[in-house]
Amino acid sequence: MRMLTLTKDVKEELLDKLIKRSPNNYSEFEERVNSIINEVKERKDDALFEFTQKFDRASINKDNVLVTKEEIEEAYEQVDKKLVEVIRKAKENISIYHAKQKQNSWFTSENGKLLGQKVTPLERVGVYVPGGKAVYPSSVLMNVLPAKVAGVEEIIMCTPPMENGKAYAQTLVAANEAGVDKIYKVGGAQAIAAMAFGTESVPKVDKIVGPGNIYVALAKKAVFGYVGIDSIAGPSEILVLADETANPRYVAADLLSQAEHDELASAILVTTDAELAQKVDEEIINFTKELSRKEIIEKSLDNYGYILVAESMDEAISTCNDIASEHLEIVTKNPFEVMTKIKNAGAIFLGEYSSEPLGDYFAGPNHVLPTNGTARFFSPLGVDDFIKKSSIISYSRESLEEVYKDIVYFAESEKLTAHANSIKVRFEK
Amino acid sequence: MRMLTLTKDVKEELLDKLIKRSPNNYSEFEERVNSIINEVKERKDDALFEFTQKFDRASINKDNVLVTKEEIEEAYEQVDKKLVEVIRKAKENISIYHAKQKQNSWFTSENGKLLGQKVTPLERVGVYVPGGKAVYPSSVLMNVLPAKVAGVEEIIMCTPPMENGKAYAQTLVAANEAGVDKIYKVGGAQAIAAMAFGTESVPKVDKIVGPGNIYVALAKKAVFGYVGIDSIAGPSEILVLADETANPRYVAADLLSQAEHDELASAILVTTDAELAQKVDEEIINFTKELSRKEIIEKSLDNYGYILVAESMDEAISTCNDIASEHLEIVTKNPFEVMTKIKNAGAIFLGEYSSEPLGDYFAGPNHVLPTNGTARFFSPLGVDDFIKKSSIISYSRESLEEVYKDIVYFAESEKLTAHANSIKVRFEK
Fold it and tell me: Which annotated residues bind NAD(+) (chains A, B) (predicted)?
């Protein structure tokens, strides 16, 4: 793997390279995506099923688009019982963690004035689940369960069918375990458009979440504003911040766990210890040989794999903040102390037994995390994504009377006389 | 004003009309906006100042783009002392309300496992403040103060200059009172691009908030993903839900308070009382004659003014939920009971003395609210918009050992063998 001394130039170049992977940089696909969206918006089901025929080579129509109870039962027969068991354990951990994120409505009151904030779950949410080479039941759980915990009334799912017109069995089982209400066998930008605007078969939702390819990502961005969307997902990232106390085998294995996702994935080690850097590099070579996704790993390490040796822990930490990685592992003497200095990271794993895949599958926190430096301003997917707030304002006559002249003055100074009038009229003689 | 019996058809037509006002429907401007953004991204300050010359007819350069202490002092001399006083009172109320929105970092721990969520303020935020006919100091407070309360390290502001190269005095005073760190005299899509990508003069920010014209709205949407943005603002809306107990003069005055904003603003009354409907209509005619923004009001009422008479309170409430208005006033016998049935609204005003402008200026809750039906999934601007979260995961060796076989199984079932390996390696003999 590329091993470099951490300098300002090296860092700038790395940051520049990482940001270029953003779905925002694929505007050449925008026109095609927009035309798919417009077709579905206008011709609804007809367009939706035509695109499904074209892109997924599956014959889907209004009579078979919705997954039936029988199809779900069939799916259970196809998957390993052990998987169902593990899904249920993971579900429990994920539900418990997310339940702690729940916010209450609140109000304050004094002397005729009541102010507050009302929390209401979204009514209908659409979860997108990709097909093809990326059938991940864990992802279904991570997208659906926070909505469930939030109290969303109806959760629908869209997932592309296989050529035989069936959905992937693992997806169906995970969706059923997570409590999805309805599953539609459509995918791609056409599915996003269907959920954003509604068709005869697919109902319009309030928010769309879930990962997908570049078409799906751009379609989500295009419909943002008509519906809510989760953050725009880029390629996976792992950043390990380690000192001389780290075990090089563990560090190497963890870097590889993200490098295997796809060729755009990034795996970066920032360390204060040149010896560790060397050993991690050796372990990576050893492990890679034996891993089934060797080819992807080699490409992604070649593209975005870095081992950076920093002069000091402060410099290393500051670089981690600049990278703002999706996953950050802190494997140092005092990981919690280091954590207090971390400003930007989707999920932070502390200590040598907190391996990143623990968070992907099992611990409870969400694995849908901000990528591509967006951890500077985006948060992990969570219950907050499935609620909205309304401000609550109630003043008595006396409370309004106390302040009405100030309001009238303020409104008039902004030349909004009808605003002023609406206050004045309540105190006219 | 248009007075109609509330039927399904009337409602559908109204909803369709309202949604057409969305900034999403102005894609004909997209190309121009994108070209401005690309110019600024590539040529930075040079492009930024050229556009400022072109669109604002002001000569701004790197030496005068930043508002000086002297300019702020000058601004204080130009505005009424009373305005400063009222701004300070409003600031206090807004700060107190938003302080209650603050979320804490939290963790849970048991037996070797620690899970949590770390809350971190954004580092640098950019607030956009329009110029021209819409200089609203109240809007400055509402955009800046939640960021202040959240603990954002640096708040910068962009606002278009007048032809003499100065910023609007009221904007400067409000910005200074709210605690803005730096103010740049640039506006439009070019200012949004400058804050999203950085130029020699204007630093790159993590998130951009604040209202603006269609160019600003589209520019914000275009840079979404590179930086965070607040919700995409559409025209103002007021919806009054009233029964026979409402005072028609108050209702009329409140409807007009939003109608005066601009020609796209909507003012809708839904009532169960036909007599009230009639009286409100008369009062609107009376008030409008005397109001200074008569022409705007007449156009917006003509476009989007509706008085709808519903058969029952349940039907009326359901229509309010479908409209999902920016502002909702509930003026009924039991407003709090009705409120429990409201799912979608930016801000809810209860009772006849809770006039909407009270919320615009003074009560404390934010006046930056979801418009255009987006209250179905967006929330009022608040402290949450200026923080981000990181998940925290820390497992001991023993805790990981308890679950490691399940994780390995799950990863292998998803064919992610490097994920499985990163767990296995920790327990290899």
Answer: 128, 190, 213
Give pLDDT tens digits for B325-375: 999 999 999 999 999 999 999 999 999 999 999 998 889 999 999 999 999
A379 touches chain B (CB under 8 A): yes
Query: CA B386, CA B142: separation in Å to the nearest integer?
Result: 13
* Core vs surface per residue A319-344: b (16+ CB within 10 A) or e: bbbbbbbbbbbbbbeebeebbeebbb
> Smallest Cα–Cα separation from B306: which of B277, B343, B344?
B277
Would you place residue A28 in the very low, low, confident or very high pLDDT band (cuts 50, 70, 90)? confident
Chain A: give the shortest CA distance to residue B143, in Å: 16
Distances from the Cα of B324 to the Cαs of A127, B321, B378, in angstroms?
A: 22, 5, 10
d(CA A186, CA A202): 10
User: Minimal CA–CA distance to A289: which of B414, B427, B405, B421?
Assistant: B421
Query: In CATH, what is the architecture of A25-229?
Result: 3-Layer(aba) Sandwich (3.40)
SS3 state of residue B83: helix
- Do B171 and B178 meet the contact criterion of CB atoms below 8 Å apart? no
Instruction: Check: CB of residue A269 under 8 Å from CB of residue A280.
Output: yes
What's the whole-number average pLDDT of chain A? 95
Q: Which residues of A touch B97 (CB under 8 A)?
A: 115
Flag whether residue B23 sits within 8 Å of chain A, measured between CB atoms. Answer: yes
Task: Show me where the domains of chain B are located.
Answer: 2-23+235-360, 44-229, 397-427
pLDDT in tens, A220-229: 988 988 999 9
Q: Measure the CA–CA gap between A84 and B410, rounded to whole angstroms.
A: 10
The three-state secondary structure class of A203 is coil
Shortest CA gap A393–chain B (Å): 5
Q: Which residues of B belong to the active site?
A: 326-327
Contact call for residues B272 and B243 (beta carbons, < 8 A): yes
Residue B27 pLDDT? 74
* Domain A2-22+235-364 fold: Rossmann fold (3.40.50)
Tens digits of per-residue pLDDT, A150-193? 999 999 999 999 999 999 999 999 999 999 999 999 999 999 99
Residue B85 binned pLDDT confidence (cut-offs 50, 70, 90)? very high
- Cβ atoms B117, B106 nearer than 8 A: yes
Contact B288, B259 (CB under 8 A): no
Alpha helices in B103-238 (DSSP H): 137-150, 169-178, 188-197, 214-223
In the chain, the amino acid numbered B178 is A
Residue B165 to residue B186: CA distance in whole angstroms: 10
Matching fold, domains A2-22+235-364 and A25-229: yes
CA closest to B23 among chain A residues: A225
pLDDT for the residue B369:
95
In this predicted structure, the answer to whether residue A197 has a pLDDT above a threshold of 70 is yes
**CA dihedral (B371, B376, B381, B386) positive or negative:** negative
Parallel, antiparallel, or unpaired for β A305-309 and A2-5?
parallel
CATH of domain B44-229: 3.40.50.1980
Q: To the nearest whole angstrom, how far is the Cα of A76 from the nearest Cα of chain B?
A: 15
A42-46, A241-245, A359-363, B141-145: least confident range:
A359-363
CATH second-level architecture of B2-23+235-360? 3-Layer(aba) Sandwich (3.40)
Q: Is B214 on the interface with A (CB under 8 A)?
A: no
Distance CA B189, CA B204 (A): 15
B351 touches chain A (CB under 8 A): yes
Query: What is the token pair recorded at A11?
Result: 């860092």
With CB atoms and an 8 Å threshold, state whether B287 touches A421.
yes
CA A60 from chain centre, in angstroms, equals 28
d(CA B419, CA B209): 39
* Beta-bridge partners for B120: B388
